[in-house]
Design goal:
By secondary structure, the chain is of the alpha+beta class. The chain has helices spanning 71-84, 128-137, 225-237; strands at 19-23, 26-32, 38-42, 65-70, 94-96, 99-107, 140-152, 155-168, 175-181, 194-203, 210-213, 219-222.
Length: 240
């Protein structure tokens, strides 16, 4: 998938034939045979992000990644990988025309993805005025437990279990997805914790996407009995 959210191949439950595809400013060669092995090769350099998604419908036979970094970016990457205790394969750099010398790095399939750079601090959005603004302007206000967090493209998706609904303009399911803009959304929600969230409903113009959106610097507080009392008091002051 490209950084714009569009599939390059094998997307939306459709199987693409082997061949060469244009993506992220380069050519991606896709090969597969009757066996379980599939390969993707891109000469590079890439001009945009590419997201590799794997749909497993049978036991995972193993996934291997190999990528090349510009020489000036390799040393910081090497230091971070060694700090995490990951193995690193380091053959001699080779010349790739017209690119400068580069060095490969292989990360085993069963290791976690490289952690992103630390996120900057979020703006302070505490206070009654902020709570009232978001409660009155939101489509949904509810208590939810965060089950998982997934970053894709330029968004962060939370899977949540709805615990208690304070305000809803349409029905909610027991489990929902809440989307937040960016890899470093504000506020950042931690898995396995309960929050009080004020979110908006966002429907695409063609009606193909119907999402619950947590705006940047929106209202998300760790749930507590005190927070429950505050939001109930806010509901009385909010015009219907």
């Amino acid at each position: 998938m490209g950084g714009d959210g569009r599939y390059v191949l094998n997307g939306d439950w459709a199987v693409s034939p082997p061949g060469t595809y244009e993506a992220a400013g380069t050519h991606v060669v896709y090969t597969r045979d009757t066996g379980p092995q599939e390969t993707l090769q891109a000469a590079g350099p890439t001009s945009h992000n590419l997201l590799l998604q794997v749909l497993l419908q049978e036991p995972n036979p193993g996934i291997e990644f190999e990528f090349w970094l510009p020489q000036e970016r390799y040393s910081p990457f090497q230091a971070r990988v060694q700090a995490l205790g990951w193995p690193l394969w380091q053959p001699q750099p080779r010349e790739v025309e017209p690119q400068p010398p580069a060095a490969p790095a292989v990360i085993p399939a069963r290791t976690p993805t490289l952690a992103p750079d630390p996120c900057p601090p979020c703006p302070d959005t505490r206070g009654r005025a902020h709570r009232l603004l978001h409660y009155c302007g939101s489509d949904f206000v509810f208590q939810a437990r965060v089950l998982s967090r997934h970053r894709q493209a330029q968004e962060t998706r939370y899977e949540v279990r709805i615990q208690l609904v304070y305000k809803n303009r349409s029905p909610l399911r027991a489990r929902e997805y809440v989307w937040a803009p960016g890899h470093c959304p504000c506020p950042m929600l931690a898995p396995h914790r309960d929050y009080l969230l004020a979110v908006q409903r966002l429907v695409s113009p063609n009606g193909t996407q119907d999402r619950l959106l947590l705006p940047h610097a929106g209202y998300a507080r760790p749930w507590s009995p005190a927070e429950d009392s505050r939001i109930r008091l806010t509901a009385r002051r909010c015009p219907i």
